[in-house]
Amino acid sequence: MYNEDLETIQVNQYIQSHRNEFNKEIGLAIRNYRIKNNIPIHIVSERTMMTISYLNQIENGVNGISLIKFICICNALEAKPQDIIESFTFGGNKNEDLIYNELQKEKNLSKNILEFMKQK
């Protein structure tokens, strides 16, 4: 197994063990994108056929989100999925710039991942 594979596995294990924090941060990323692009939640609700209450639960990290629902939300926001999830991906040493840029955006999960990797 390559060293990069081990790093990726460690990061994925970390993300899975911190699922609640991940749900909160992905929800916040969705909310921030929606607000930044001036899209009212009721429009997202209509476009996704999800209730406003359910969307609020996703945005607040109360509920996790399935891939299908995530894609529906991206479609409703007219966003590419990577526009929302780029701060949650890890590309090893080849992609340190992405991690650094996300740290600049004050993403807690990215900070935690970087600190976790430094400890290894």
Question: Could you walk me through the main structural features you see in this protein, from its secondary elements to its overall organization?
Answer:
This protein has eight helices and no strands. It is mainly α and 120 residues long. The chain has a single domain (3-115), classed as lambda repressor-like DNA-binding domains (434 Repressor (Amino-terminal Domain)), CATH 1.10.260. The model has no long low-confidence stretch (mean pLDDT 79).
Number of domains: 1
Radius of gyration equals 15 Å
CATH architectural group: Orthogonal Bundle
Name the helix and strand elements from N-terminus to C-terminus, one letter apiece.
Answer: HHHHHHHH
Outline of the structure:
This protein is mainly alpha-helical and 120 residues long.
Write the layout of secondary structure elements.
Elements: H1 3-17, H2 19-36, H3 41-48, H4 52-59, H5 67-77, H6 81-85, H7 96-104, H8 108-119
Primary descriptors:
120 residues; single chain; 8 helices; elongated; 434 Repressor (Amino-terminal Domain)
